[in-house]
Amino acid sequence: MSEFEVSEKGYYGRFGGAYVPEMLFPNVEELRENYLEIIAQPDFIEEFDSLLKDYVGRPTPLYFAKRLSSHFQTNIYLKREDLCHTGAHKVNNTVGQILLAKKLGKKKIIAETGAGQHGVATATVCALMGMDCTIFMGEVDIKRQAPNVQRMRMLGAKVTPAISGSKTLKDATNEAIRYWINNPSDTHYIIGSAIGPHPYPDLVTRFQSVISKEIKWQLKEKTGSENPDYVLACIGGGSNAAGTFYHFLDNKNVKIIGAEAAGKGINSGFSAATLKLGTMGVIHSCKTLLMQTADGQITEPHSISAGLDYPGIGPLHAHLYESGRGTFFSITDDEAMQAGLMLSRVEGIIPAIETAHAIAALENLKAKSLETVVVSLSGRGDKDLATYQSYFNL
């Protein structure tokens, strides 16, 4: 077994596991006992692949960014997850999980969301399958991601605000878990990131691995080699990154690069740079690196991007960091915003602010002129136009 695959007990190195309340143990066990068998069934694979092709719009293009490449003096390809139906990679996972929920006989779906893209993707597949949908979202994020809230409601979802703590993604996740504890039998929780109790990190990673699967054959078609020199993605909980890295994890010739949110600066007190600031702990039923005080109280994160505004990190990424397999840069709000504007004006692509963190990391990469860099363009910036407008006074 690869050292980067999840163990039977749900761990990546020291990170992972399932630390769940007793009331949720049957739900998590039901999922753990059945998910591998279900997603390997021919009828599941056929329906999943069909929906990815005809509904989501896969394969997404692998685009050679000529002017961006010229700017950085290297060869940059953008994996266009922003062109997925709903505007981000999140729908790859929600399609897979709702099919799994149906197989398990669930009638209701809940989800958490920060930037709103996972909420929209969940509301979308619930409308597609005619299932009841409740989305938990921090009150702060509801205001700064208003277009996505409108989309969720248009799709028939109930959007429930989280009004505790920093009123962002962490708090939305807390509310979703509380709801699940009180409604365990008929409800499936579609977690949107590669985090949570085992088997969620592995489950989400498997559904998102279509990204790196496509990169390999698309790059082979374009360059003659299926392996880039670098794969680069932004990281909050880590689902787009996990999917982008997945098929390259065991190839040490491919450098794995992540971009996390440093907010106003790593040591500013307003940051979400979990890998640089985090220590071992348990958050949302999984052991990983998280931002916390000396006595174990979770520190409030900050990022201008709602999707990266989280004090933890997926266990796979914690393991990639600790093992040295991955290199991770901490990108400030200002660096991300400038990178988002640059991509808009150099390539005519307005990225989500989350994605802009990955574009900003190209400044740190120092890739050589003959090398190939693949960047996961995880989402489009429609949802962030108000933030861009305010920041740049457009």
Structure overview:
- There is one protein chain.
- The protein has helices at residues 25-39, 42-56, 66-72, 90-103, 117-129, 139-144, 146-154, 169-182, 200-208, 210-223, 239-245, 274-277, 315-323, 333-347, 353-365, 385-392, and strands at 11-12, 15-16, 62-64, 75-79, 108-113, 132-138, 158-162, 187-189, 230-234, 255-263, 279-283, 286-290, 326-332, 372-376.
- The strands form 4 sheets. The protein has a 6-stranded mixed beta sheet with strand order 3-4-14-9-10-13. Strands 7-6-5-8 form a 4-stranded parallel beta sheet, with helices on both faces.
- The longest helix has 15 residues, at 25-39.
- Helix 4 packs across helix 9 (200-208).
- It has 2 domains: 19-51 and 91-200, Rossmann fold (3-Layer(aba) Sandwich); 59-87 and 205-392, 3-Layer(aba) Sandwich (Rossmann fold), CATH 3.40.50.
- It contains 16 helices and 14 strands.
- With 394 residues, it is an alpha/beta fold.
- A hairpin with a 2-residue loop joins strand 11 and strand 12 (286-290).
- The mean pLDDT is 95.
Give me some keywords for this one.
2 domains; Rossmann fold; single chain; alpha/beta; 394 residues; 6-stranded mixed β-sheet; 14 strands; 16 helices
Task: Write the SSE topology.
Layout: E1 11-12, E2 15-16, H1 25-39, H2 42-56, E3 62-64, H3 66-72, E4 75-79, H4 90-103, E5 108-113, H5 117-129, E6 132-138, H6 139-144, H7 146-154, E7 158-162, H8 169-182, E8 187-189, H9 200-208, H10 210-223, E9 230-234, H11 239-245, E10 255-263, H12 274-277, E11 279-283, E12 286-290, H13 315-323, E13 326-332, H14 333-347, H15 353-365, E14 372-376, H16 385-392
Parallel strand pairs: 4-14, 5-6, 5-8, 6-7, 9-10, 9-14, 10-13
Antiparallel strand pairs: 1-2, 3-4, 11-12
Helix pairs in contact: 2-4, 4-5, 4-9, 5-7, 9-11, 10-11, 14-15
